[in-house]
Fold each of these.
Amino acid sequence: MPKHSNRYKAARSKVDRTKQYMPADAVDLMRDGATAKFDETVEVHLSTGVDPRHADQQVRGVVTLPHGTGRVVRILVFASADGISQAEEAGADYVGAEDLAKRIQDGWLDFDVVLATPDMMRVVGRLGRVLGPRGMMPSPKAGTIVQADELPRVIQETRLGRVEFRVDKTSNVHVPIGKASFESGQILDNFTSVMEAIMTARPSAVKGIYLKRVTLTSTMGPGIRVDVNAASMLKAA
């Protein structure tokens, strides 16, 4: 059995593991237990009833968090011609084509998000084995294959807190929704935006239970179960 610190045990003692908390109460309890010496990331973990082995039961999308993620995002853009100037003016950290592809093939991975214009997928396609396992491969469903004239908007949204979510092979979805230093209302707003997006992304092929469990946690804190029905009904003001 893993050994937990006294700090973790103190936080866990305040959580009733048999209870499903209302969203606002879960946020307050999570923040109360986020006592590490660094600013912990807040995450929502969802257990779904989809079967990710089937193409018509994929849960995937993007959502812009109203209060951002609280972290600095390094954006890499594959573009050519007009796309290069658009991306540079919008503030992308790295912009290029074959030169960036070679750096990545040589082991360079100092970036967090990859965007690409459609004409550059012939270059990006060669990086599938590197970017794919890291969840960075541009795709239409993730909104990361972008027309050149749309690059400024997508780059701005990514800076402000645009996050991607997708179901993994164990039928779970994991989404960062901010930092423990955020106000409770900010975390709840971000949580609401994510839940709306998750519910909108429900595959039509899923006939049974869609969400089985919703858990809120911080990096070093205990998981707090959120009432599934209440979380599913969250709507932005």
Amino acid sequence: MEGLTLYIIIGIIALVIIYVLLTLNKLIKLNNKVKEAFATMDVYLKKRWDLIPNLVETVKGYAKHESETLESIIAARNNYAKLSTSEKLSSNEEISSSLTKLFALAESYPDLKANKNFLDLSKQLTAVEDEIAHSRKYYNGSVRQYNNQIEMIPSNIVALIFGFKSKAMFEASEEEKQSIKVDL
């Protein structure tokens, strides 16, 4: 009887160890998926940042007295590489706001709006923004799966023991949530 009890205890311990290892592997896999999703989004954000100096230079020729707007965009771009992951997510709000100001500025200059270089850069930026939107969706889906795994019972116990923490989703800023006014 004691031998049977020992086998049952060893079996239970083995099952717990197997469960912990399987859960740990799943958490690592999901964490890596979040990192990969962010890296993908980061590539597109960098593409956007790389287009900005060309766009700013094009606008500068038409709007010399708007240097404050242009300088803030370039300053934000130059700091991007030094930022942490969470800071990169929040800096997106700053650049989106700056780009909105830049395109509003372009509305004041009909010659600029007709400039071939400006139009080409605007199209490229639109394409990159679409890619960013798709990568945000993928990133948020990856974060949702990861956060679900570390918050749901019983895998949350393994996550707590091994120090897995929730990740922030990429959310639109309050400015981006506002409806756009269209004057025709």
Amino acid sequence: MTNIKNWQAPKFTQLTINELYDLLKLRIDIFVVEQTCFYPDLDDHDRHPDTRHFFCYQNGQMTAYLRILPKGLTYQDYISIGRVVIAPSARGTGLGHELMKEALTICEKYFPQDTIKISAQEHLEKFYNKHGFERVSDMYLEDDIPHIGMVKTVKLI
């Protein structure tokens, strides 16, 4: 797989039909099929006017995706990053870290000065720690998968 990536951060109305299909397929392939977790993936947050879909393609395949949600959707006082996913073919390449680094830059651009809160799968705590997130909750079950709340506070200049 080539390292050439085409990073994009469109709003819902800016997604092409193929991009929408690809992101939904990637999310369902991983979260529903691979993790055998049946949950309502289509939750109306995708089409909120301020939601950003962040992803890249490599060799014509969407290999990384996440969405950035404005305040008031998942958390009243925080923006949120969710649906973080890496295609199986791109795992172990550092793409997950690159995805988070690039996404945090997008957060600064579109949501400056906002603190970010995530609901992270508990086994990924150290991954998110490397990107400045700190645990703020005990473990809880979300769709029968252990999760924790994590927050990244922006540094005011």
Amino acid sequence: MRFDRVKLLLGDDFSKLKDAKILLLGVGGVGGHCLDCLSRSGIRDITIVDFDTYDETNQNRQMWSELHKGELKVEALKKHYPNIKIINKRVDEEWVLAFDFDEYDLVLDAIDDTKAKLALAQKCYKKLISSFGSAKRVDPTKVEVSDIWKSHGDKFGSKIRYELKKRGFNKKYTVIFSSEEAMVKEKGSFVGVTSTFGAVMCSQAIKRIISK
């Protein structure tokens, strides 16, 4: 059976994956690989949110992008993961403030919008796993997991911490980041790192689910 080897690994905890409700925000270079990992691990109730379409520049790092040029990402991914639920919306600050996150066990943040990330932290930090910058790097062994206040080596993460402090936010939540120094100023990217971020996000989600 499809999930037999996952069951061998997790034992009775596998049933917790089937009952978990996951909200995945952003299905690009990080989120797309996270979605694939979640699906292959036996998580059935996944809702993805994205507004973008696939173009040729996505093909170096984004799942299925070479097959769906010009298509909406959420609709294209539905063809490969038919059990997922899709929301074709841009995840910005306004959307975060208006959306009801209560029904989800975990919120996985694979977006780039700074204001939306800040709003997510303030609104649902208890169930949030957030990705920082995966671009501009080539070493997947430098990817780390910590709480927001212990993250380091990432200018984007530094900006998030600074803005959260300005807002008086002092709670902890899980972040994924790279301590590798950025190689370029432009947003060059390498699938070895972006996919690692996605796999680590999936792993953190699974560990959180089975720990309950």
